[in-house]
Each structure stands twice: as C-alpha cells, then as structure tokens.
Specification:
The chain has about 260 residues and is an alpha+beta fold. It has three domains: about 55 residues, no CATH class; about 80 residues, ATP Synthase, domain 1 (Sandwich), CATH 2.60.15; about 40 residues. The chain has four helices and 14 strands. The chain has a five-stranded mixed β-sheet with strand order 6-5-13-12-9, with no helix packed on it. A hairpin with a 2-residue loop joins strand 10 and strand 11. Helix 3 packs antiparallel against helix 4. The chain is extended and about 70 Å long. The N terminus is likely disordered.
C-alpha cells in the first residue's frame, strides 16, 4: 500500500469539481491495480495484488520461491547459545601485527583475558549459579543455589535452573537467594539481572544491603522527610527527586514488614 499527499492531475480531479474519483481499477495480467481517492483529505491509495482471474497455485509458488531466495542471503543474528564456549583468538589482529612487526610477539587483546563461557548443559542442572556484584564489591561469586527471586520492573521474577535466557531491569525491592532451607534477602535499589541459557544468573545492582542491616526507624523517618519534600516541591526537578526518595523508602518499608 502506498499513500501519497501530492496534488492530483486535473485529468483525475478538477479543482472546482464537486465530484471526486473514489475508485479506479486496472487489470494487468497477472496483477490488478486499484486506485482510490478519499476526499476531502485528498489521500491517494494504490494497491497491487494478484488478479483473481489469473491467481493460481503456480503464481503463489513463484512468489514464495522469490521470497525465500531474498531471505536466504540474510545473515541471522547469533544468539548467546550460538557463541562458542571457548574464546576465539583474535587471529585477524595477530596476522596484521606480524605483517608490521614480524619479529615481535603481538600484544594480548581483551579476548585473551576472557574466561571460557560455560557450555549449555544437555541435561537440566540441579543448581543455579549466581554472580551478584555491586560497583564496589562482590556479594556472591559463582554461588550455587536453588532459586533466586529478583524484583523486576515487570514484577517479582523467580529464577530456577534451566530458566530461559532473559534480561530484566530491577526496581527497588527485595532480592531473595534460596539455598535449601536458608533464605538470604538483600534490598537492591536498581540494576539488571542477566539470566543465561546455561543456568547462570548475573545480577548487577547499584546499591544493595542485607535486610537485617536496615534500621526501621531511619526508614520511617526518611519516608516522612521525602513525603514532605514531595508535597512542598515547586519545580519538576524537586518533585522527581522527592518521588524517587518516596519510592525507595516505601520499598524499604515494605521489605521490612514482609
């Protein structure tokens, strides 16, 4: 379908004529062309489709073959599970380096320092490997657990071994790490959770603190202060900052009362 706002020729539409061309058909085997004009906006629509009289199985098969031939050369985007488990050496850089400095060993590239990605297991593993890091510390490193529950922006999301590959944005809330009968809870301010197809979960948070280290009195005081700031804010910036404070302290209060 092609839409056009250009002025129509006078042969089709007279400037002062009250009659408007609403439909015009032209059949060119094996296709038919339709032309329609919608007044008063003067929109022109063109459509090209196979003619009813000439449409056949051979024509449909021809169109399908043409479509498949056009798509056959398009490269498919590789998924994370298609990437080899072992890092591939940067051979192109090494070859270019040898041409310039054949007597010197090429320097190491970032690929040389990357650990091999664990292969996707053929059977469903019994444990979920969790890496939980902050900008300044590592809370969990290759920790094998039964389940984690992350506070995603779309809702609480439980992650078990064999979970489908997912990227989730985190909102202020409780991150629960389940290991047998033990449950460790952290309050996270924001971040992202990367769930991989090989039952590895990488959780990155801006701020996080164990629930048992939060002072309930300070949370209540902070919630009151930010609520007052929100009510007295006069600019959009002040309202936004106060609203963030109210949301975070409300989530902290809910985490403590849960």
């Amino acid at each position: 379908m092609i839409w056009c706002r250009e002025n129509l020729p006078s042969a089709i539409l007279a400037p002062k004529s009250k009659h408007r061309l609403t439909h015009f058909s032209l059949q060119i085997s094996p296709f038919s062309l339709s032309l329609s004009l919608h007044s008063p906006s003067l929109f022109l629509s063109l459509s090209l489709r196979p003619s009813e009289t000439e449409r056949s199985d051979s024509n449909i098969a021809m169109l399908r073959r043409a479509t498949s031939s056009l798509l056959s050369g398009v490269s498919r985007r590789r998924l994370s599970t298609d990437v080899p488990a072992t890092p591939v050496a940067d051979s192109s850089f090494a070859e270019a380096w040898k041409k310039v400095s054949p007597n010197l060993e090429p320097p190491k590239t970032p690929l040389s320092f990357m650990k091999a990605r664990p292969p996707t297991p053929s059977a469903l593993p019994s444990k979920l490997t969790v890496n939980f890091v902050l900008p300044y510390a590592s809370q969990l490193s290759a920790k094998e657990v039964d389940m984690v529950i992350v506070p995603a922006t779309t809702g609480e999301m439980g992650v078990l071994p064999g979970h489908v590959a997912t990227i989730a944005e985190l909102k202020p809330g409780v991150l629960s790490v389940h290991e047998g009968n033990d449950v460790t809870k952290y309050f996270v301010s924001s971040g992202f959770a990367f769930i991989h197809a090989n039952s590895v979960a990488d959780i990155i948070a801006v701020e996080a603190v164990p629930i048992d280290r939060i002072d309930a009195n300070l949370v209540q005081k902070g919630l009151q202060d930010f609520t007052q700031k929100l009510n007295s804010a006069s600019t959009d910036l002040e309202k936004a900052e106060a609203q963030i404070g109210v949301d975070v302290h409300s989530a902290l209060n809910s985490a403590l009362s849960a």
